[in-house]
Design goal:
Helices cover about 20% and strands about 45% of the residues. A hairpin with a 4-residue loop joins strand 1 (about 35) and strand 2 (about 40). It is an alpha/beta fold and about 350 residues long.
Amino acid sequence: MQRRIIKDIEESSEIKEFRLEALEKLEETEVPKWKRIKYEVSPKENYKEFNNIQIEGEISHVVKKSDLPELNQGEDSYLEHFNKAYFNSGIVVEDGDRDIHIRYEMDDENNFLQDLNYIMVPEESKVNLIFEYSGEPKYGFRNTVTKVVVGRDAEVNIINLQRLGDRVESFSSIEVEAADRAKVNQYHLELGGGVNGGSSKVYLKGENIQSENYSIYIADGDKKTDLEYSTYHFGRRGESLIEGRGIVKDRATKVFRGNLHFKKGSARSVGKEEETAVLMNKGVKADSIPTLFCKEDDVVGEHAASAGQLNENKLFYLMSRGLTEREAKKMVAVSAFKPILEKLENRSIEEKVLEDIERRI
């Protein structure tokens, strides 16, 4: 049945071959079961067209060929195979020095999105990318796979803003490979979705590479959130940061994993990971799992995690100055996110994050 679905899609034989190869791998891969958030992936669709897309800025083309460079650091996950078998959108960027903003708006008709993106940043160039996902369909499934290759002395800045409705299952996987003296900056703003799974893997293959990976999340209602951010140091004198800040409230479940890998040959590299979660009430489940993996002696690795109930003294102080309890909680949420929002240097995106805080807190 699945092969028939692929054969019925009107596209080149090259793409069909690409899809069928991914389908074979998909059939051999176990469906992921996330025990901590008690969730198993079970999409209601395989393939369906998605037509509600806006693109600002020049791209090379939409995804339409399969002979693009792959990153082969490890085996693709079930969701990545699923994406490659049934993708219905995505972009290709092969040129530097450009700003690109892609908006995907989900509704009851456009409720199944699988975007496959390939970004190649040439040497000594810069690319700024914004991926924005919004909409509140009665049911929705979003599964994004993005592959990025950054050349020597190049820079890429990526913002992922996810503001989908509570009835959407939302997943995102990004894999970045960087060469000498490259700069990689990521901002993952995970504010919506009933189920929210995010993964970022950055491979610092050269020397003197800088990687910063920031995450903001809101886990409210009955939301299930599982986020994992990993950086792999291969070359000398690399610098990396993983920083997460979040709000957990109501009956939500959250897992945040930060992984730093220092491979042999990564001497004099420095890596830091930290997460801060504010628990707005009792009854939430919030796990923070910072991990260091080290096969090199001359490196510096730091990790920290904190999760605690909302400070009652701080809340009382704010309310004594005339704020309602809800207004005081929103102020605490804004102050928790502000250090990352200021780094964005994008007022429009910052305002949308503040809108969601206003609505959800």
